[in-house]
Structures are given as structure tokens and as C-alpha cells.
Amino acid sequence: MTQLAIAPMHWAQLPDLDETSRLSEGDFACMQEMKAVLAKHGKLDRFALHLIHKHFDMAEDEVLVEYTNTAKREQTFKVVKHGDKVLDNVIPTTWSLDAAMLTALTNCVFIPYQGHQDM
Questions:
Q1: Sign of CA dihedral 68, 110, 34, 42
Q2: Is this model's pTM higher than 0.85 or not?
Q3: Which residues lie closer than 8 Å to 76 by C-beta, 6 or more apart?
Q4: Residue 94's CB: how many other CB atoms inside 10 A?
Q5: What pLDDT digit, counting tens, does each position of 24-46 carry?
Q6: Assign residue 51 a region: left if phi > 0, alpha if psi is -120 to 50, beta otherwise?
Q7: DSSP label of 14
Q8: What is the pLDDT of residues 68-109, one digit of tens each?
């Protein structure tokens, strides 16, 4: 099994959203090729694409965690410290693919048989 690291988003030196360029024809061509690879592996219904960006800086000991309130249909992201008990119940949902090791950038709180968790 491939190792997965959980890391704060700032480690990837991500641009702020307003610093990212608009999508281009080259981006769309690349996405079509990625779609073909996912289709080849039967994973179109498992993975999607995400524009890598940040909204704020994070410290080296912090992780971005997604909470979900299904009744209100709301998602909230919160920064937690490494070692926080909530990290015992997360499923990585966004990865950086540019490092030697897959790096989880966003993690969704989900407890088996209980479902999504709100803050």
C-alpha cells in the first residue's frame, strides 16, 4: 500500500486563489487526459479534480479538516493541530500529487457507522 502523509496546505507553497490563473485550453486538454486515465482504471466515479490553492497560511503543525452538517447541508473547514483526536477519524479527500509521497491536503471527519461529523 502506498504511504500517505497528512500535511498542512501551506507546505506545498500553494498560491492564494486570487493568484491562480484562469483555466486555459491547455488545462482543459490536460483534464481530458486525466479523465481518460481515470476511465481506464474504472475510477471516474471515485476521483475528481480540484484546483490547488489556499485561502490562508498554516503552521507546520496544523492540518485542514472538513466537517459536514448533513441536516443543514453545510460544510465547514477548520484548522486543527497535529495530534488532535479528531484526526483519528478522518478520510483524506484532497491530495497533492507533486511530491515523492502522496500528501493529503484536506481531510473529512467521518466515523464508521456514524457518518459525517459536524464541529
A1: negative
A2: no
A3: 66, 67, 68, 69, 118, 119
A4: 16
A5: 999 999 999 999 999 999 999 99
A6: beta
A7: P
A8: 888 899 989 899 998 999 888 888 888 877 666 666 777 777
Nearest partner of 106 among 68, 70, 74, judged by Cα: 68
Q: Reduced to 3 states, what is the DSSP secondary structure of residue 71?
A: coil
Domain count across the chain: 1
Q: What is the DSSP letter of 100?
A: S
Count, in order, helices (H) and strands (E) of the chain.
Answer: 1, 6
Identify the CA nearest to 102 among candidates 58, 61, 56, 47: 47
Domain that holds residue 79: 4-116
pLDDT at 1: 41
Query: Cα separation of 22 and 27, whole Å?
Result: 9
Could you give the CA distance from residue 107 to residue 77 in angstroms, rounded to a whole number? Answer: 9
Q: Which helix (H) or strand (E) holds 26?
A: helix 25-40
Residue 31, H or E segment: helix 25-40
